[in-house]
Amino acid sequence: MLNDPQGREQLLSLGVRNVPVVAKGSEFVFGQNLEDVAEFVGLHGTGHTPLPPEQLMKKWINVLRAAQRFIRQLPAGRIGERVIDNRDRSIRLLSHHVFRIGEAFLETVIDDVEYSAGLATVPPKDGTFTTGDEIAAYGDEVIARLEQWWSTADKACTRKVPTFFGTPPMHMLLERSTWHSAQHARQLTAVLERFGIEPEGRLTPEDLAGLPLPERLWE
């Protein structure tokens, strides 16, 4: 919808309020599960093999630590600016969202809260998390909770979990949460570059290998 002015109207005509969505005529499928998308368009699977849960957890924690570094580099006076001109989301909200993804994941896998379309985008209260250091400290809390959960979790991650796009195995939600945080960490590096700041400890191709990341930065 960022690049198509008619995109929102088309989405609403289907009775859908969330993206990504793949549609053919009046039929559609949510884009969160790429295997569902492949079947919808007539393909026999995506050919993608998810990384094992243990590798995903290691990559996710690494991504979150990188995001903390980037967020601490943000100029305090610019954290309220938009991430990109054509979307109404501030750098502050994007930075918080990187870690809120982890908190939403835990609410689903521990408390059986449905992973609704808005669960990972619950914003911080007004007047809170107004500096990079405060948001990075929130990241410390989320990382600690993720590590504590993983220390006693069923490492197979096969249990079904409730989401707005079905009841996939926990493994799929873990992979989705990992690449979701990674995509936003990549966007934070672009924000720093726009400010003329070299991101500290960039994520490498090896760090992101095996994750089904969008090809474009702002998708």
What would you note in describing this structure?
The chain has helices spanning 7-13, 34-40, 53-72, 91-111, 132-152, 170-194, 205-208, and strands spanning 21-24, 27-30. The protein has two domains: 7-40, no CATH class; 53-208, Four Helix Bundle (Hemerythrin (Met), subunit A), CATH 1.20.120.450. A hairpin with a 2-residue loop joins strand 1 (21-24) and strand 2. The protein is built from seven helices and two strands. It has a two-stranded antiparallel sheet with strand order 1-2. With 219 residues, it is mainly α. Helix 3 runs parallel beside helix 6 (170-194) and helix 4 runs antiparallel to helix 6 (170-194). It is globular and about 45 Å long.
Which terms would index this structure?
mainly alpha; Four Helix Bundle (Hemerythrin (Met), subunit A); 2 domains; two-stranded antiparallel sheet; 2 strands
